[in-house]
Structure formats: C-alpha cells, structure tokens
Design a protein that fits this description.
It is built from three helices and four strands; from the N terminus they run αβαβββα. By secondary structure, it is α+β, with helices and mostly antiparallel strands. The protein is globular, with a radius of gyration of 17 Å.
C-alpha cells in the first residue's frame, strides 16, 4: 500500500566522502571564459555535488584575471584541478570531462558503483 502522499523515494545513498568521513579541499584553475574552462567548472562542480556533497571546499581561480596567482602553485596549463586535501596533493591537468578519471584520481574509484 502506498503512503497517502504517494510512493516514497529510496533513501539517498551516502557519498563516498561521507562514508569515509574525509573532507576534500580542491582548487580549480581556469583561463577566462573559454568553453574548455566553463566545461571544467561545470564538470567539477557536478562531480563534487554528486560524490562529495557536504564534504568539500572548491575554490575556482581565473588565471586570466590574476596572472601572478598561479606562480606559487607552478601552474603551466589550465584547466588544472589540485586536490590539496586529503594528502598527498594531486593534480589533474586538461580534460575535466572524464568523470571516472577524476573520481579515481580523487581516491573515489568506487564512487559511481
């Protein structure tokens, strides 16, 4: 029998980050509003919301607006995603549309399973 307000949705599955109790600190460097940069922003935000919701901080920095900014991070290309925490620091350069590659690199290989 259905509840008076209709069928209930199954409970949300905890994210991999929630299951591990790990908080991620990510920094995404992009170069202006080029399609590749906008795509990287969109894809990384979607990955974070789907797999790290409530357990991440994402900072997006535009090297076109602040060219001196990446000097301390040794940024040679954009887009680049840097996982600052949990350690060790990891870098992802270039195409941010390969969700599985990003998940594996973040240490969440079974997040989509």
């Amino acid at each position: 029998m259905n509840a008076p307000n209709g069928p209930r949705a199954p409970p949300a599955r905890p994210t991999a980050a929630a299951q591990a109790g790990v908080h991620y600190v990510l920094r995404l460097y992009v170069a202006g509003s080029a399609p590749r940069s906008l795509g990287a922003i969109s894809n990384i935000r979607a990955i974070c919301e789907a797999h790290l919701k409530g357990f991440y901080d994402l900072e997006i920095l535009d090297i076109a607006e602040h060219p001196a900014l990446p000097a301390g991070e040794r940024i040679l290309a954009a887009p680049i995603l840097i996982r600052r925490s949990p350690l060790p620091v990891r870098r992802f350069i270039g195409d941010m549309s390969d969700t599985e590659r990003i998940l594996v690199g973040l240490g969440l290989p079974n997040a989509s399973a």
